[in-house]
Amino acid sequence: QVQLVESGGGLVQPGGSLRLSCAASGIMFSIYDMGWYRQAPGKQRELIAGITSDGITNYADFVKGRFTISRDNAKNMVSLQMNSLKPEDTAAYYCNAQDGRKWLRRDYWGQGTQVTVSS
Question: Which residue, 85, 45, 41, is CA-closest to 67?
Answer without folding.
Answer: 85
